Amino acid sequence: MSQFPAPGSQQRASAGGRNKVQLKPGRSLMDWIRLTKSGKDMTGLCGRLIVVTEEELAKHNKKTDCWMCIRGMVYNVTPYLEYHPGGEEELMRGAGADGTELFDQIHSWVNSESMLKECLVGRMASKPKPVAKVFENQSGLKVPMPAPLNGTSVPDRFEKQSKDIPLRHEWFQTEDTITVIIYTKKKDINSDSVIVELESGVLRTEVRQEEYSYILHLELSHEVREVVSVHCASKVGKIEVSLKKLNSALWSDLGKPQEHHNSYKKRTDGDLSYRKCTLLSKVDVSHDTRLLCFQLPPGCYMTIPVGQHIYLKSSIQDVEVVRPYTPVPPSLYAEPNDGGLTCTNIYLMIKIYPDGLLTPLIDKLQVGDCVSVSSPVGNFKHSQLAGVTELILLAAGTGFTPMIKLINCSLKMPSFRKIRLKFFNKTEKDIVWRDLLDQLASKDKRFEVEYILSQPHLEWAGKRGKVKMSLCSEFLTGRIEELKTLVCICGPPAFTEQTVGSNATCLQVLLLVIFILESKQLVLYLCSCFLT
């Protein structure tokens, strides 16, 4: 099964990620923060830091005595076991060993140093490191060869990188502007693939291609006023970044290379960059859900592709808290970018949980306040919509947010013949953008929406209940066999557990279609982005 789109740390087990467990009362993240601030010795060493050998680390592999190494630092995670959202057994997988790879697979975006700093035992004894190969790139900058992936030899593409990086760039100037051109060799390049940042005279442009990024990173040789525009010419596969000069003096060179300049590197969640974004507006879309508009910093241009999310990061009592959110368009009818990258705002639809850790702070933000926003994350690709003719969406609450761009995108593709949204909520007042959804259904006959309430009032004429076979069985009736169907599911843990868990009858029914038709016409993607 493929995943659409999901921070791995928050997926259900059935979606290929870890399974969140029900913790004991008093074992929330805030309770853990309070415990770390209590002054209690969390290491068992009375604050003394030591150097830990592999042999010593291996001795501490029990629930009553559990040490783990993460990025060269050793932590006594024994007191944290009961607070771990994935359960004690999940954490014990790294007991008495180096858990860095396991940590990065599950939640590399979490700051372990912040979360476990009071549990720090010391550092691992150093080992001799192999001498890194160094090559000289096209700009004459010496950079290390990428480390082997999964213990295998360096892929051929990286061996070629030292001689011929897949992308190249050049620049030209006029009296008023500097224009940098990046040639991608990809005719399907669009604004979703580009992140541009200009800060303190340093220009960083990232061009994303599948799992890899091309980086152009320069300290400019002269001052500039601003980034004028970023344009993607998809027909010829090039990107143009135009900068306004501070004065009309001619430049003899573009600038001084910075870290990773002119490189082509694999992306990981651990490499996420953050930028401070300013709150421009906050609008109620329901009694407990807000639509917030954040402005990217000056000189920053970034769009978030369909099926991808960002992280918001904040410090709560000196502990870094990170949560994933799926950006939405400002309206259900927002037009796509025309190839000129002018997006400087990010819209988030966030449900406020009074007892949540981060959302109460978000709700208190005032216009002008700032938050840290990450680069886009996700492995859903627009190309995965190719050939799909029917879209079935099961959304609960703000699990609707990842569906919005997908609906927008699909309705602009003539190949889509049917798009059906089943929108689950507790009460009628919980339904967000209901008027817009009804207008869309009336405007485009390919789109259908149905509202299902678990706690409706007596006059409610629509369907009632939670997700179950009887509410989803209609997917089996009246279907045209030649349709190729994409099913997307998104909602809070209880909802996804019902739909994709081991006893998820409605999902079993949907999967049964595959076996009955003996075809791959029904394509299943799991969408789990929990906005808490």
Short description:
The chain is 17% helix and 33% strand.
Q: What CATH architecture of the largest domain would you give?
A: 3-Layer(aba) Sandwich
First and last CA, distance? 25 Å
The residue-averaged pLDDT reads 78
How many domains? 4
The low-confidence parts are 1-18, 128-163, 502-532
Please report which band the strand proportion falls in: under 5%, 5-15%, 15-25%, 25-35%, 35-45% or over 45%: 25-35%
Structural class comes to alpha+beta
- List the strand order in the largest sheet: 1-32-31-27-28-29-30
Net shape: globular
Your description of this structure?
The protein folds into four domains: 123 residues, Flavocytochrome B2, Chain A, domain 1; 137 residues, Immunoglobulin-like (Sandwich), CATH 2.60.40; 103 residues, Translation factors (Elongation Factor Tu (Ef-tu), domain 3, Beta Barrel), CATH 2.40.30; 142 residues, Rossmann fold (3-Layer(aba) Sandwich), CATH 3.40.50. The N terminus and C terminus are likely disordered. It has twelve helices and 32 strands. The protein starts with a strand and ends in a 6-residue tail after the last strand. With 532 residues, it is of the alpha+beta class.
